[in-house]
TrEMBL record:
Homology family: Belongs to the protein-tyrosine phosphatase family. Non-receptor class myotubularin subfamily.
Organism: Rhinolophus ferrumequinum (Greater horseshoe bat)
Short name of one Pfam family: uDENN
Biased composition (Polar residues): 1773-1782
The protein, known as: SET binding factor 1
Basic residues biased stretches: 1057-1073
Location of the protein in the cell: Cytoplasm
Chain segments carrying region Disordered: 1028-1097, 1287-1309, 1629-1653, 1747-1786
Length: 1891
């Protein structure tokens, strides 16, 4: 029972004490005057009576009523019902407010209640003051309050004859029941009567219509977002002009939150004076009058709901998490069904006439029912996650949040997470968690209706009926009795407030009222307390929880099989079947990603623990720990699936004996997981264990069982859960004696205490690292690392804050370095102990004891660990796979023995079994070795399903381009490891993670050694040199004196001389003046002949003074003559070495030894080809005009057109001085610059005149002209000396003098990089230039004359500006734009990244093509081929070309070499290509060491693959002309690999000069004896070629005159497979000795019972080397031949001899047959276009077929797809190699007319039907030998009668037509007559049926 009203208060307007314009309320009277003991008088009522402020108003307003809510310090709510009316203001009140009347009026209008116009006359200027009657109550009966206050007001206004004191006294003494559904009638003694109904259950909120109104005002979505905001503790503010609406809205929102209670600030009506409350940091629900909306604008984090406007505004910075799906959408749809029932029927054709809509009160309950269902669904099964920590004296209950979220499948859900962490839920747990209490509707719902709700989910009508059922119950709770119309309360008459009141509200007599109150109190004390006994019961737990949304279990669909695997693996481990277990382990580790498998693992391991201990051997221990680690690595810090909880007892149970008395437990190996440093995890675990023990305490001994039952698991049926036990105990508690109660409390307390000690131990186990000296581990852990944050996170949620503070206020953590591990762990454990012990009621004495104990526990454990750590170090390491020693080359030595590493996948997906299929070879476990020559990884795949495959990946140390440290996951136990990524320019990548046994110092040593080997200080330290020395050390020094001066001493002398002369040359160069020797321009004296008859004149200042060569020089000369250059010059007829001078003079060119001391140009060879007419001393001067002194020399001459190809460095730009002179002195004097350019001009003139075609004196016929388009407007006259772009003045002047001039130098005119007129047309994609025609007409309208210049100079656009054009126009400049070496370098880097990405790609293949395009590598190759083809054409048409680009040793070398390769078939042979590389690349000084960064000095310049780019160009040409090259594509790859490998000395150093200096060039013949390792790559190739045809191209069938003109568009270029292929079986295949693998066992061993086993084997892409696993047919046959010969005991013949014999025989066999050449593979008379498209020897995956694929779509060579047609075509062509005479193949032949392709006429052809080859062939006529076409009968689908079409033979019968339909097209045929047509059809069909 409770008082209906606690206080009655009269509040009136009074002046403001500070005299401001506003007034303030003051209390006139209050009853009772003394406070009730149980309920003090609430403060601040004056403010809440007039929330908008106390103001006078100029007219009478009707009375207003609203209820404000005040909350006291004990969170009790007081309802203040306020009825306000207005009375005329007294003079004193008016005086206050005369100032600022206008402002006050505005305010009153804005803030006061709605005014009505006055009906009665009011004296002008009369003001009215508000007065308020207030009723204060703790009960919420709004209507009763309204009636009671109304009655008092009516008595006053109407002047009824009733004493107000009596009414007030009766009101204050009225007592009504609180709850229980009783009905009570009350009367206040004024003839009135009211009925009060109390709700059935107190716990359900009373909402009347407030919820329905809230939805009407705001709509579904807005209310839902307010609901979520209130639950997730956001600030909510309501705005309305009506106070009653504000109260209702707040009441409605609170009703929706049931069963949670809102525990933050709740003020439905906030007075204007208190608006600053809105900026409080805590959450709130507050209502404010809309008049103050402006003041709420600047609140940044408040959600504002405008009830009048129906809007909800959520600020940007606030995120309201939504309800989890599917609950959100379900709730939304049910709400709309309730609010708008007509929506369902809106589309019906025949809607029912009326829809019964619920009354507002009923709709209110329906809406609440929807939210009640929502909470039941959200919190379903919550009781299974409650932990009973204490039962007596008061229940202490904790909620296992993580388990709840995990089992509901809502770990990620933001909404539920926030709700569970909120204060409202904490209140819910402490209130509703109690096991023995009264239950209400929600308890029933969550326990019994969940299954029904789940079943109804997809049936809206069933959901609606359930909602209506619940609504009925809620309605009945509020209105237990049918509505009784028994209220009888007087009301004032209409407009009574406008009548002039007789008097102000009277002052009541306090004594009377007090007397009435006292009377009632005395009566109450006498009466017995009417306590209604509460019905308390055990709260039902309901069914165990399920996931809110069944996740699709596709990922672990076959979980039963997975669990089986886990169980098997564990049983194998414990049975000691380690091999079996090892096989299953990877599958188990994969399965453990699934939750079920992790649970299964924990359960299975539990079975193997006896008496809390399981001792394992080392291998078993290792397996168990690995599986545990794998389980724990996916655990979040919350451990929501209870995996860590299940494993916690196990990690302290499994152990192994390290030595007598030292045992290592599993916990020391599973500490690296975040879950162990999470306080919440430990708390949940602790409370779970406490619950188990407390339950055991109260269970009967018979029922007692092993307490280690898993937490949160449903107990078996016969057992009672902890909540049941607790409920029973709470029921019995009052009946127990005092002593018994004390005893139980004590038992429980000591249970908790012992668990706390137990947990302090457990935590020290898992937090102290095995090696306590390493504090690293702890600092990295979340909870311990940053102790400041840790303490915060622990204390915020803890109610034990104060206690924890006392122990932990000092933060001794500033310096994490000095912070010792033990200290950190002690603090962590102490914080935990404080929190749990305070919460679970451990006595303070016990708590202090614990604090003393913790440091000792930790210290003891550290001491134990030290012994374990010491012993574990002595353990033999776990049996890791045996390290596989790599095979080494002879002379290759190991520098660093194997470091254990894991080789990780690097983005090339073949190795990991990507889209290409195949096994996952990577990651592989093995070791990395560093040798003097290579970095080698050997190992085995970690995936045991792959089998025992050895994985090898290696590259030469010299090829290393980038090395970087990385941090990667170890693929086995997923821990982060240090790693190293090595990238090489041979397109290998080693991405390695070091095993944990490899210390950081070993890894560092590896890096240092690698660096030392990669960049040796001197080239002599490279492998190519050390290899030789290693082998010769054992030999005794040989005496070489007797042989005369050896070549080596000679070369030393030579270098000395060269050094002297070069030194001198540099000195002379500084003082250089135009030469003034007498014989400067004279021809050399006739009589000075030399022993080598090479005309030479030595310049006195630079060369050795004596003209007769010393004997040593002669030796040098003879060895120079042996060089490749000389041999080639003699082959080309460019110079002679005969002794008769007369012949030498007739030759246009000569070999000059001017550079034999390398004095003129260090980077040129010793002998050079120069024009016959140029003297040696002039060369010295000419060389100064060119960069690096590389003056133009001839390197090749065309045998047909006699045009020569020259090369040089680019021109020097003019010096600054020269420029000034040129500007200031218009008349060209004999200045320094001029003299050298004169020399240069003379030299070029000499070159031109040495060419036979241009030898006549006039030189006029050499002029080539271009249309003015190509000339850019500069048309100099024939006389003009100099016209360059840098001198436009002269150019324009010359144009004025000779406007008719028609020739000029080629210029880049406006278009960038035009290559001259003819050149431009070629590059624009037109066809090859036609040779000049006989009648002199130009081949192209763009040219004025067919004549070309005698010499084209191809130079860099930027450099050619300073070059003078030839006065007689005998040479022309072709400026082109070329890329620089650094562009090649960057492009190559990108190419490397594209081909070997380094990390696995996220998206599939387009990424490769995109990065390939970005690298611009193919674009550069396109440019090179384009320029080369241009030069080839110029040479072919008879003009000579000088290539003068950059320094003359990079791009110049590339272009010159390509030109020779394309023009001269000799260079396409093995010998020729070697000569080409030796001459152009080695002798002419391509800087291999510099570009390859071979030594420490070159490290900064980086790797620039100029030579590799050249090889790529050759490969592109090889692809287009496969029959023109004697060498195979493998040869190019071999050179590409070894030019960077530093295995051979060939590609070391930058020039011949440097090679001589090191004594490399002329190595003495006597040294090469015995099995010495080859020093030269050529020697190696020769040796290898004798043994195997690997470098030979079987399709080599050259045409002697063929000049190759490859297509150079990027679309025609293919990515070289050298960049992309790899074989992991043996590493790169270019070191032949290593690549050959171990020999296979001989056939005899394989015999098993007489029959040989199948020799089938699987060939894996990326693992096996395909050419070796599946050699092409010819290689296979040659191998077979050798094998048979060996078996027969004959000495095997060399493969080359066999091949040549077969080839010759086949050529001869074809001759006797009258039809001409056989259709042999080696046919050399194929038309050019076919040859260029290519005849490919397929090494595709189809098997060893020789396929002549002549159409371009098949020309992808080694990547041929082996599709059906290709296979068919290849089989058909196979016959032609073996059957020479074709007569026997002709089954039927004759003439047929055949309709040509579209728009072509009918033609008679000779057709041959060949049953053997299954073909229909046709020829032009009967004796024609060349087949014009083939129809493959395998492709024929039907033969049908045909009809004559347009152009068919007229005389033939219609029935003689027939059609042959193939898969590709339909052929129309016509025979001579009907019988022959029938015969053909029969024959073809017979052929088809035979097949």
């Amino acid at each position: 029972m409770a008082r209906l009203a606690d206080y009655f208060v009269l509040v009136a307007f009074g002046p403001h004490p500070r005299g401001s314009g506003e007034g303030q309320g003051h209390i006139l009277q209050r009853f009772p005057e003394k406070d009730w003991e149980d309920n003090p008088f609430p403060q601040g009522i004056e403010l809440f009576c007039q929330p908008s402020g106390w103001q006078l108003c100029p007219e009478r307003s009707p009375p207003t009523f609203f209820v404000a809510v005040l909350t006291d310090i004990n969170s009790e709510r007081h309802y203040c019902a306020c009825l306000t009316f207005w009375e005329p203001a007294e003079p004193t009140q008016e005086a206050v407010c005369t100032e600022d009347a206008a402002g006050r009026e505005e305010e009153a209008d804005a803030g006061g209640p709605v005014r009505l116009p006055p009906a009665a006359a009011v004296p002008p200027g009369q003001l009215f003051a508000p007065k308020t009657l207030v009723l204060v109550s703790r009960l919420d009966h709004v209507e009763v309050f309204r009636n009671s206050l109304g009655l008092i007001y009516t008595i006053h206004v109407e002047g009824l004859n009733v004493g107000l004191e009596n009414v007030v006294g009766n009101l204050l003494t009225c007592i009504i029941p609180l709850a229980g559904g009783s009905q009570r009638t009350i009367s206040l003694g004024a003839g009135d009567r009211q009925v009060i109904q109390t709700p059935l259950t107190d716990s359900l909120p009373i909402s009347r219509c407030s919820v329905a109104l809230l939805f009407r005002q705001l709509g579904i979505a807005n209310v839902l977002s307010l609901f979520c905001a209130a639950l997730t503790e956001h600030k909510v503010l309501f705005l309305s002009r009506s106070y009653q609406r504000l109260s209702d809205a707040c009441r409605g929102l609170l009703a929706l939150l049931f069963p949670l209670r809102y525990s933050f600030t709740y003020v439905p009506i906030l007075p204007a004076q208190l608006l600053e409350v809105l900026s409080t940091p805590t959450p709130f629900i507050i209502g404010v009058n809309a008049a103050f909306q402006a003041e709420t604008q600047e609140l940044l984090d408040v959600i504002v709901a405008d009830l009048d406007g129906g809007t909800v505004t959520v600020p940007e910075c606030v995120h309201i998490p939504a309800l989890p799906e599917p609950l959100h959408s379900q709730t939304h749809s049910v709400l709309s069904m309730v609010l708008d029932p007509e929506l369902e029927l809106a589309d019906l054709a025949f809607p029912p006439p009326t829809v019964s809509t619920s009354s507002l009160k009923m709709q209110d309950k329906e809406l609440r029912a929807v939210f009640l269902r929502l909470f039941a669904q959200l919190l379903q099964g919550y009781r299974w996650c409650l932990h009973m920590v204490r039962i007596h004296p008061e229940p202490v209950i904790r909620f296992h949040k993580a388990a709840f979220l995990g089992q509901r499948g809502l770990v990620e859900d933001d909404f539920l997470m926030k709700v569970l962490e909120g204060m409202a839920f904490a209140g819910f747990v402490s209130e509703r968690g109690v096991p023995y209490r009264p239950t209400d509707l929600f308890d029933e719902l969550v326990a019994h209706e969940v299954a029904r709700m789940r079943a109804d989910e997809n049936h809206p009508q069933r959901v609606l009926s359930h909602v209506k059922e619940l609504a009925e119950q809620l309605y009945k709770n509020e209105n237990p009795y049918p509505a009784v119309a028994m209220h009888k309360v007087q009301r004032p008459g209409e407009a009574s407030h406008l009548r002039r009141a007789p008097r102000p509200f009277p002052r009541l007599d306090e004594g009377t009222v007090q007397w009435i109150v006292d009377q009632a109190t005395a009566k109450m004390q006498g009466a017995p307390p009417a306590v209604k006994a509460e019905r308390r019961t055990t709260v039902p737990s309901g069914p165990p929880m399920t996931a809110i949304l069944e996740r699709s279990s596709g990922l672990h669909g076959n979980s039963a099989r997975r669990l089986e695997v886990v169980r098997n693996c564990i049983s194998y481990v414990f049975e000691g079947k380690m091999l079996e277990a090892k096989k299953l382990l990877p599958a188990v580790l994969r399965a453990l990603k699934g939750r079920a498998a992790r649970r299964c693992l924990a359960q299975e391991l539990h079975l193997h623990v006896q008496q809390n201990r399981a001792v394992l051997d080392h291998q078993q221990f290792d397996f168990v720990v690995r599986m545990m680690n794998c389980c724990l690595q996916d655990c979040t810090s919350l451990d929501e699936h209870g995996i860590a909880a299940a494993l916690l007892p196990l990690v302290t149970a499994f152990c192994r004996k390290l030595s007598p008395g030292v045992t290592q437990f599993a916990y020391s190996c599973v500490q690296e997981h975040v879950v162990w440093s999470t306080p919440q995890f430990w708390e949940a675990m602790f409370y779970g264990d406490v619950q188990t023990h407390i339950r055991a305490l109260y269970l009967e001994p018979a029922e007692d069982r092993d307490p280690a039952q898993q937490v949160g698991e449903a107990a078996a049926e016969d057992e009672r859960s902890a909540l049941d036990v607790a409920s029973e105990q709470r029921r019995l508690w009052p009946t127990l004696s005092r002593e018994k109660q004390q005893e139980l409390v004590q038992k429980e307390e000591s249970t908790v205490f012992s668990q706390a000690i137990h947990y302090a131990n457990r935590m020290s186990y898992l937090l102290l690292p095995l090696d306590t000296s390493k504090s690293r581990l702890l600092r990295e852990r979340a909870g311990l690392g940053d102790p400041e944050s840790a303490s915060n996170s622990l204390l915020t949620s803890s109610m034990a804050g104060s206690v924890a503070e006392s122990y932990d206020t000092e933060s001794g953590f500033e310096d994490a370095e000095t912070c010792d591990v033990a200290g950190a762990v002690v603090r962590f454990i102490n914080r935990f102990v404080d929190k749990v012990c305070t919460e679970s009621g451990v006595t303070s004495d016990h708590l202090k004891g614990l604090h003393v104990m913790v440091p000792d526990i930790v210290q003891m454990h550290i001491e134990t660990l030290e012994a374990v750590h010491r012993e574990s170090k002595r353990l033999p390491p776990i049996q890791k796979p045996k390290l596989l020693r790599p095979r080494l080359l002879p002379g290759e030595e190991c520098v660093l023995d194997g470091l254990r590493v894991y080789l990780l996948p690097d983005g090339r997906e073949e190795g990991v079994g990507g889209s290409a299929g195949g096994p996952a070879l990577l990651p592989a476990e093995g070791a990395v070795f560093l040798t003097t020559y290579r970095v080698i990884f050997t190992g085995m795949p970690t995936d045991p399903l792959v089998g025992e495959q050895v994985v090898v990946r290696s590259f030469p140390v010299a090829a290393l381009t980038k090395e970087k440290r990385i941090s990667v996951q170890n693929p086995v136990d997923q821990l982060l490891q240090d790693g190293l990524q090595l990238r090489s320019c041979t397109f290998q990548l080693l991405k390695m993670a070091f095993d944990e046994e490899v210390g950081s110092d070993s890894a560092e040593l590896f890096r240092k050694q690698l660096h030392k080997l990669r960049y040796p200080p001197d080239v002599r330290d490279t492998f190519a040199f050390t290899l030789g020395s290693a082998h010769t050390t054992g030999q005794p020094p040989r005496a070489t004196k007797d042989k005369g001066p050896s070549l080596r001493t000679l070369s030393r002398n030579l270098v000395k001389n060269a050094k002297k002369t070069i030194g001198r040359q540099y000195v002379t160069r500084k003082k250089y003046h135009p030469p003034s020797w007498e014989h400067r321009g004279q021809p050399p004296p006739e009589d000075q002949e030399d022993a080598i008859s090479v005309s030479e004149e030595l310049e006195p200042s630079t060369l050795t003074p004596s003209l007769a060569l010393k004997p040593s020089d002669r030796m040098t000369m003879s060895s120079l003559v042996e060089r490749a250059c000389c041999r080639d010059y003699q082959r080309l007829g460019l110079g002679t070495l005969s002794s008769s001078l007369s012949r030498a003079k007739s030759e246009p060119f000569r070999i000059s030894p001017v550079n034999r001391m390398y004095a003129i140009c260090r980077s040129y060879p010793g002998l050079l080809i120069v024009p016959q007419s140029v003297q040696d001393n002039a060369l010295q001067r000419v060389s100064r005009c060119y960069r690096q002194n590389r003056f133009p020399v001839v390197c090749w001459r065309s045998g047909r057109s006699k045009a020569v190809l020259l090369r040089s460095g680019g021109l020097h730009g003019k010096g600054v001085v020269g420029l000034f002179k040129a500007q200031n002195a218009p008349s060209p004097g004999q200045s320094q610059a001029d003299s050298s350019s004169l020399e240069q001009e003379k030299y070029l003139q000499a070159v031109v005149s040495s060419m036979p075609r241009f030898a006549d004196a006039s030189g006029r016929n050499t002029l080539s002209g271009f249309s003015s388009v190509h000339m850019g407007g500069h048309v100099p006259s024939p006389r003009a000396r100099v016209t360059t772009l840098s001198n436009p003045m002269a150019a324009s002047a010359s144009r004025r003098t000779a406007p008719r001039g028609k020739w000029g130098s080629v210029r880049a005119s406006g278009r960038s990089g035009v290559l001259g007129g003819d050149v431009g047309s070629r590059l624009a994609g037109r066809d090859m230039l036609a040779p000049p025609q006989a009648n002199g007409a130009p081949p192209d309208p763009g040219f004025l004359r067919p004549q070309r210049a005698a010499l084209y100079i191809i130079g860099d656009k930027a450099q050619l500006k300073g070059v003078r054009p030839d006065p007689l126009q005998q040479w022309e400049l072709v400026p082109i734009e070329v890329f620089e070496a650094r562009q090649v370098k960057t492009s190559f880097k990108k190419l490397l990244k594209a081909c070997v990405p380094g990390c696995p790609a996220l998206e599939p293949s387009p990424a490769f093509l995109r990065s390939l395009e970005d690298s611009e590598w193919l674009t550069q190759i396109h440019k090179l081929l384009q320029v080369s083809v241009l030069v080839v054409e110029l040479l072919d048409s008879g003009s000579s070309v000088l290539v003068s680009l950059e320094d003359g040793w990079d791009i110049t070398t590339q272009v010159v070499s390509l030109v020779q390769l394309l023009s001269d078939p000799f260079y396409r042979t093995l010998e020729g290509f070697r000569l080409l590389v030796e001459k152009e690349w080695l002798s002419f000084g391509h800087r291999f060491s510099h570009r390859g960064a071979h030594t420490l000095a070159g490290q900064s310049s980086g790797f620039t693959p100029v030579f590799l780019q050249f090889l790529d160009c050759v490969h592109q040409v090889h692809l287009q002309f496969p029959m023109e090259f004697e060498f195979s594509p493998f040869y190019l790859k071999f050179l590409g690999y070894h030019h960077v490998s530093r295995r051979f000395r060939t590609f070391l150093l930058d020039s011949d000069y440097e090679r001589i200096e090191l004594g490399l060039l002329y190595e003495e013949k006597g040294e090469r004896r015995g099995q010495q390792a080859c020093r030269s790559v050529w020697e190696y190739v020769d040796r290898l070629s004798k043994r195997t045809p690997v470098f030979y191209n079987y399709m080599y069938a050259p045409e002697d005159t063929e000049v190759l003109r490859p297509y150079s568009n990027v679309s025609n270029l293919k990515v070289w497979d050298f960049y992309t292929e790899e074989s992991l079986a043996e590493g790169p295949p270019y070191d032949w000795e290593l690549a050959q693998g171990p020999p296979e066992p001989p056939e005899e061993e394989r015999l098993d019972g007489g029959a040989p086993q199948s020799r089938r084997r699987v060939v894996w892409p990326c693992y096996d080397s395909r050419p070796r696993a599946q050699p092409d047919a010819i290689s296979r046959l040659l191998e077979e031949l050798q094998r048979l010969e060996t078996e027969l005991g004959r000495p095997p013949e060399r493969w080359k001899d066999t091949w040549d014999r077969v080839k010759a025989a086949q050529r001869l066999e074809g001759r006797p047959d009258g039809r001409g050449t056989p259709s042999s593979l080696l046919v050399s008379s194929m038309p050019h276009h076919r040859r260029s498209l290519g005849v490919y020897l397929q090494e595709g995956p189809v098997g060893s077929t020789l396929s002549l694929s002549l159409d371009s779509d098949q020309s992808s060579g080694s990547t041929a797809s082996g599709s059906r047609q290709a296979a068919r075509r290849s089989t058909s062509t196979l016959y032609s190699q073996f059957q020479t005479a074709e007569s026997e193949n002709r089954s039927h032949e004759g003439t047929l007319y055949k309709k040509g392709a579209f728009m072509k006429p009918w033609k008679a052809r000779w057709f041959v039907l060949d049953k053997t080859k299954h073909q229909l062939r046709y020829y032009d006529h009967r004796v024609d030998t060349e087949c014009k076409g083939i129809i493959d009968l395998a492709e024929v689908e039907a033969v049908a009668p045909g009809t004559p079409t347009m152009g068919a033979p007229k005389t033939v019968d219609e029935k003689a037509f027939f059609d042959v339909k193939t898969t590709r097209r339909v052929y129309n045929f016509c025979a001579q007559d009907v019988p022959s047509a029938q015969q053909w059809v029969d024959q073809i069909q017979g052929c088809l049926s035979d097949a």
